[in-house]
Amino acid sequence: MNNTGTGRVIVYEPNQRVRMGFAESWIIMLRGIIGARELIWQLFKRDFFANYKQSYLGVVWIFIAPVVGIISWVFLNAAGVLVPGDVGVPYPVYVLLGSSIWGLFLSFYANTAKSLKDYSGLILQINFPHEALVVKQVAQTVAEFLINLALIIAVLIVFKVVPSWGIVFFPLAVIPLMFVGAGIGMVVAVITAVAHDVDKAVAALLGFLMYLTPVIYSPDQKSELIRTVVYWNPLAYLVGGARDLILYGEIVSPAGYTVSVLLSMMFFLFTWRLFFLSEHKVAERL
Amino acid sequence: MGDTVIKVKGVSKKFCRRLRHSMMYGTLDVARGMLGMGARTDELRPNEFWAVDDISFELKRGETLGLIGPNGSGKSTLLRLLNGIYQPDKGRIEIRGRVGALIAVGAGFHPLMTGRENIYLNGTILGMTRSEIDRKFDAIVDFADIGEFLDAPVKTYSSGMYVRLGFAVAIHCDPDILLVDEVLAVGDFNFRRKCYDKIGEIRKTGASIILVTHAMHHLTAITSRAMLLVHGQEKHCGDVTSAVDMYRRLSTNIAISDDIEKVLSSTEKLTVHDVGFYPSRKLHPGDDLTISIEYEAREDIHEVECHVAILRKGDCEFYFVGSNRSVNQSLFFPRGKGNFEITLKSIPINNGAAELTIILWEKGRIRVLFWWRNILLSFGQAIDSTGENYIKVSYGTKVLPG
Fold first, then answer.
1. pLDDT at position A126, please?
2. B150: CB partners within 8 A, 6+ apart
3. Are residues B74 and B97 in the same domain?
4. B266 shares a domain with B307
5. Does residue B367 surpass a pLDDT of 60?
6. Which of B231, B252, B273 delimits the end of a domain?
7. Of A72, A264, B50, B305, which sees the most CB atoms within 10 A?
8. Domain chopping of chain A, boundaries
9. Can you tell me the distance from the alpha carbon of B165 to that of B218, in angstroms, rounded to the nearest whole number?
10. pLDDT band at residue B5, thresholds of 50, 70 and 90?
11. pLDDT for A4
12. Which of B194, B226, B252 lies at the terminal end of a domain, its last residue?
């Protein structure tokens, strides 16, 4: 509300934002985010720590879900149910990395998608840049993943797989996934604030998309169909690239990866603009 | 703009009555927004209405404007428009300066966080910087008066403490323009007085205030101008007395139609055939009202309890509640047809509309025999009165020789 200095005149008019150019909208949102740094931090603290206050185990819960996930994959592998193809490393390690990276992508989406709906009370009471909520949700996703990552590295060491030096570039490899996940999330956030079922529909769709991406299987499949799907699926390159960095220290298909990264960037800037144009129509429907 | 801090020109906002339509329109508007077409905001679609309709006004530095009007007249919507929470559908709003809003207190409070943590959280949400909160921390704690609960989770607070803390944070954000929505109605007397003192202080710094209230004495005490909103439209904007007067007349002149809610007129023991009001349901302050109930009892009914209440129209505040028990009177309805009268003597309600409720109970209040409510009464204005709670007192002064 108070992101305005004295003396500056703020104007509210119908369809104000539609008249703004692409660059202008990005600059305004960036400025809003920078101005709301403290707000983002306070909200982050509130939601990340305060939620675990009234529980015996507290923050330990952040570890429990991924551990259960790991156990289930290892179990399925030991039971011989899954035939993943040759991946060059122990299968649990492969699938753990893949599913964690996919999970990160999904969380980017899911957390962003609920950023407006979950904060409707705040939005209705106070005027603040709503993109701060998106940033906060993304930050929370990253924080949870960092904890997850510590676990993954522990598992790698148990299976005697030494992570490649490429792991130092891993944070960079996560950014395109954020672009796609948060990008879809921002569009869904606006629509889902108006009609509450859209986020569920998209989540179901993304669940299906996981099987079209080499997350739990190797991209080297005999099936022509799967190879074609994987070839045209940008997420296959983004998820695969991030995993390759840790396991092999290089990106296996650099050309496809580069194209996918560029696409994800463009997609993000575009959805950011969509979010900017439409989110201020949301308050009255919450 | 010069000295003007708020300039509102032809501002309108529409809302939708039905959820289904609202979803549909919302999706459509969002989609149009995304496609860069802008929403069609200037005309109404089916089931839409103007919640705020073509409002224009200006507010200068240091001025205070009161917003009054019946529930649903668009006061809160107007405040949200001024605060930038809603976008106008028509017109233009210009604001100069830092806006502070007491629209709902305690925004973003987390119940498991301590009072101390929540002061920082809430302060940041309201746009204060960390160092600003550090600086004002003691003043906020002092104002909220929560004592040793400062380091307890706010979920352990009483609702009064919760509101006080929220209000304390909000009121310390040093706004150039302060928007206040009814929140002063909460808290105990002492806290309300503190709030008024603080608002007075804020006024002295030259800030402008817009205040939404139902309590007319707040208006006359704080504001220099008032605007009366009815169905989103501006009915009057100017001096407080005539705005309040118009509002009063508006509520008194409600046509007495038969929208009485006849919750229960007949049971197997008792049937009420008619209820009469004498002299009429349009009264003047100090008039007597006699309610005559024509009944038919199918058996002897002993120790009937008769409750009568007069409520202020539009809210749940009682003007009067009484029963035959409170005056130690026993009621007996013999079998057959009969007539039963209740008389309320010299009702001192001034200049307002009221609702009458009548309930007849069986002995020990085990079963309701008869229940009508929302019986509209209107009271005219006593000569020379200014307030709703106007009562006539005999008044004399005398200077005694020393």
1. 85
2. B114, B115, B116, B141
3. yes
4. yes
5. yes
6. B252
7. A264
8. 38-285
9. 22
10. very high
11. 42
12. B252
Of B1, B37, B108, the CB nearest to A122: B108
Residue in A42, A122, A278 closest to B33 by CB: A278
CATH number at residue B140: 3.40.50.300
Based on the structure, what is the number of domains in chain B?
2
- Is some CB atom of chain A closer than 8 A to the CB atom of B221? no
B182, B118: one domain: yes
pLDDT at B103 over 70: yes
Are A194 and A285 contacting, i.e. CB atoms less than 8 angstroms apart?
yes
Mark out the alpha helices in A50-88 (DSSP H runs): 61-78
Counting one residue from chain A and one from chain B, the pairs whose CB atoms sit within 8 A come to 168
Tell me, yes or no, if B181 comes closer than 8 A to chain A by beta carbon. no
In a domain, B18, yes or no: no
3-state helix, strand, coil in chain A (%, to 5): 75, 0, 25
Same domain for B244 and B272, yes or no, is no
Q: What local confidence, expressed as pLDDT, does residue A230 receive? A: 85
Q: CB distance from B28 to chain A under 8 Å?
A: no
The residues in A 78-137 lying below 8 A from B, measured between CB atoms, are 121-128
Verify whether the Cβ–Cβ distance A13 to B153 is below 8 Å. Answer: no
ipTM above 0.85, yes or no: no
Q: Do the Cβ atoms of A2 and B85 come within 8 Å?
A: no
Which of these, A268, A134, A136, A144, lies nearest to A193 by C-alpha position?
A: A134
What is the identity of the amino acid at A101?
I
Provide CB contacts within 8 A for B38, sequence distance 6+. Answer: A14, A15, A18, A19, B32
Computed over every residue of chain A, the mean pLDDT equals 85
* pLDDT per position as a tens digit, A149-197: 888 888 888 777 888 888 888 889 999 999 999 999 999 999 998 888 8
Which of the residue ranges B134-138, B237-241, B393-397 would you say has the lowest mean pLDDT? B393-397
Domain that holds residue B220: 59-252
Mutate to test the interface with A, among B5, B20, B34 (most CBs of A within 10 A): B34
